[in-house]
Specification:
two-stranded antiparallel sheet, mainly alpha, 188 residues, single chain
């Protein structure tokens, strides 16, 4: 779970400002596979972050029905893949285990280089690290999972609609994955 300081940091970050002003060039909305549902590309976050059209967060446990529990499970799987990728990078490049104590521009270049090197290693060596103990057990679906609102407490109808459409898709035959029906309703 993300703490309030992290959410505040996000609120004042260049990424947040770029998302809010739409100056960050995200891919165009996409039709989801085997469906007619068109949705934006989104970032995934946990319950501490705001729900926006570009940032999905789980449904509250207070309003959880079966379809929402499945959405939360699928969002959790996506977050796990991201956290696993970061864990792999941090285990190879220890500089990521702590704050990078250098100028911001230098830190950005370091992170870009690490991302580039990570992708080169995957291209050369494959995905064998993704099934190691660093990540727990990931299935093939996990491995393949490699515009606007306010951060205030009020959530726009558009953000809710985006999340609801993802929920509908994940619960449809076109968007379901094996074992999601067995998912624990508490997954957040």
């Amino acid at each position: 779970m993300v703490n309030k300081a992290m959410v505040e940091f996000f609120r004042y970050s260049a990424l947040y400002q770029s998302l809010e002003t739409r100056s960050l060039k995200l891919p165009e909305d996409t039709v989801l596979p085997n469906s007619e549902i068109t949705l934006p590309h989104v970032f995934v976050g946990d319950d501490g972050y705001p729900l926006t059209t570009y940032l999905m967060k789980p449904y509250s446990r207070r309003t959880l029905d079966r379809s929402k529990a499945i959405f939360n499970y699928r969002l959790s799987r996506a977050r796990r893949v991201v956290e696993c990728a970061f864990g792999i990078c941090a285990s190879k490049w220890r500089i990521l285990d702590k704050a990078i104590e250098t100028k911001v521009d230098t830190a950005l270049e370091i992170v870009k280089c690490i991302a580039l090197l990570h992708n080169i290693i995957i291209d050369v060596e494959g995905f064998h690290d993704l099934s190691s103990n660093e990540c727990g057990s990931l299935d093939a679906n996990d491995r393949n999972q490699l515009k606007k609102s306010r951060i205030h407490n009020s959530v726009t109808a558009s953000a809710k609609q985006t999340r609801d459409l993802f929920c509908i898709y994940f619960n449809s035959p076109a968007g379901s994955v094996p074992r999601q029906e067995e998912a624990d309703g508490d997954v957040q």
